[in-house]
Amino acid sequence: MPAKKDNWVDYFNKLDRTLNGFEQRIEKLEKQVAYISKKPTAVPVAKETKISYESPPKRRLGWGLVWLFIFLLFGRYFIGGILDFLPIPYFIISPLTWILLIAGIVLILSNPKKGTAVEKKPEEEIDLGQEALEMPQETRTSAAKKASIRAEAAKKVAPKEKGGLEASIGKKWLPKIGIISIVLGVAFFVIYAIQNKWIGPTGQVALGVLAGIIIIVVGEVFYRKEYRNYGLTLVGGGFAIIYFAMFAAYRFYGEVINISLPVDVASLSLIIIAAVYFAVRYDSKIIAAEAFFLGYVVPLLTSSVNTFFLIYAIALTAGLTILTYFKNWKLLGAGGIVAMYVTHIFWLDFYTGANKDVLHIVFLFIYFAMFAVMALNLKEDEKGQIGQFLNSKTQVGIIFVITYLFLFALDFNNFYVVMSPLLLLVILLMLFVLNYRWDYFTIGGIVLTYIVEWQWLDANLKEATLTINFVALSLYFLLFNILLFILYQEKNKVSNVIGILLNSALYYGSVIFFYKPFNRGYDGLFTASLAIFYFVLTYLAYQKKVSHYFNTSIVLCFGYLALAVPLQFNREWITISWAVLTLVLVLLSFRLKENVIRIASSAVGLITLARVLFYDTWQLKAIDLNNFINSTRLFAFAAAILIFYIIAYLYYKNKDEFEDYESYIVYVNAAYAIAATVLTTVIIWVEIWDTKLALNAKKLWTSLAFILQAIAILGFGFSAKIKLFRVMGLILFGLAILKVFLYDLSNLEMGYRIVSFIVLGIIALLGAFLYNKYKEYI
Question: pTM (2 decimals)?
């Protein structure tokens, strides 16, 4: 078998070569595993981190207490005794202000800003296959070095502070306190020097500028020698001293050294630009904060705040706006807003020149423009959020509120002085809301606009100003309605409805309340015109298929229509009109298939029922056969009864159109039918008792009327095959039986008693006959 032997030899040779190949592969794999296990692990791969500095809430509260202390301390002297209106004695307020200062400083020092290291998520590893098991030596060495460098950098960026409160006071707050003390000392020294004539005017200004420059240079040297915070504090203080020196050049020595207001303002502007440059260069809030803070404090060192100081503060704010635009320092910007408005309050209190209202309005809108630019250019921080309290929307909202409130400082004896800025504010509000979709601004604008208008109406409404004030109110009303109609998107649904209702209520209330003393007799006509206006809005909303706007407008439309009737008409016509309005709303609900209209119709129907029962029953006139047109009570009841029965019939006839008829609509149907039946019973009873019949006759006819009404309703229930009417007939028949057996038996004379029982028996037999004859319908 040589052939078979050769085949076996070849097979074993091939198998041997294959096994040798597997052994080589296993050896290679073992070497790779051993190599990887021997890789150096001494240098861990550092996680990449970023440091985010945030002020703790208690630190912010501390700053708020410090600002409140400043306001309370200087308020008595600069705001014309505004604190005198507080119900707290000054001997209590004074120590409280210092307690606020101490508490604020403690909170600031005990809660320094803390840097939080935010780790970046490591990138997901990607398996590159078997060839990636080995890494070249150069690549491994380079990666290890980079990881080591990153780890060292992270340690340097976020070192742990040692010393806690002690280090914070020594390194941060002592230099700040020192520079503030020096600036205030220089300020008081200049004032003292003026009083004692030690230094000439030019020398005083030059000395101040030179001192500021020297301090800036010294601060620059310290900054370059790694004393960053200390150096930046000195630089900021140097700029503050130069501010004060140039400020004094015009305020105290303007006539002596012949420096004009424009020149001094230009100098101050250049200093502000230099401070902004240094702040941007060093990326330092310290320089910016110290310079602007002390700049705003300068006017407080004088006896009054005139227009020059206000222009000076505006220049400061302009620089602050530019700085905030580039650096996104939100707290600094918010502080500037507060400081500017506080300075404006001082100016309002001390300014006695001409055109005060005009200047006041111009300055307000200059502030608004600057602060709006500042707020709208706030950038998002690393977390993708601007901040919970200092975002663009909040700041713009605060600016709007403050501007509205400052309008109360105007002279309300001049219509155009008040209405012009108010109208401009409304237009600005519309632009902001339409551009940024800040829909809740509309609600605030509506409330504030009408409050300012009320102040004017309360002070100046006269016969001669009725028309122009009505035009102004109507203009605000139309502008807000236009804005609300544009903002009809689904996401604005809640605010849209609130705005529509609020605008309508405030406008209507303003006209009715303030114009009521003049008794022009147009209340009903005005109310009806509002109903027509909202009917037009209802139609527009229906065309655009805006359900919430449609529902709100149609409710207001028919609500004002229902209100117009009692204001324009009298007595029975109110009930008749309301009943007709109920029927119209029901017909509309069937036509438009809107539940809100059905609910509105039920509400108007309920009001109509209440009026008929509790007012018309006792206040309108009974049946007068001699002058039937004076039977006002009968007309009112007849209209309500007829319309309620018609509505019940409409619901029953269209029951197949309702998916929820058995669970909801059937009860609405029953309510109208029962209401009509109750009104029928009441009108029969009161009309019988208002006749001139004898007492026993009245009692008898009351029983007979109830019995006849019961059998009529019962008969209709059988003929129409409606169980509700059969049940109502039985209930009314049961009441008649109780009256006959419990009341008539003992209170009627024998003749009347006989008639009562016989009629009752006949009717009872007739009812039993009906039940037996139509038993298949039961």
Answer: 0.58
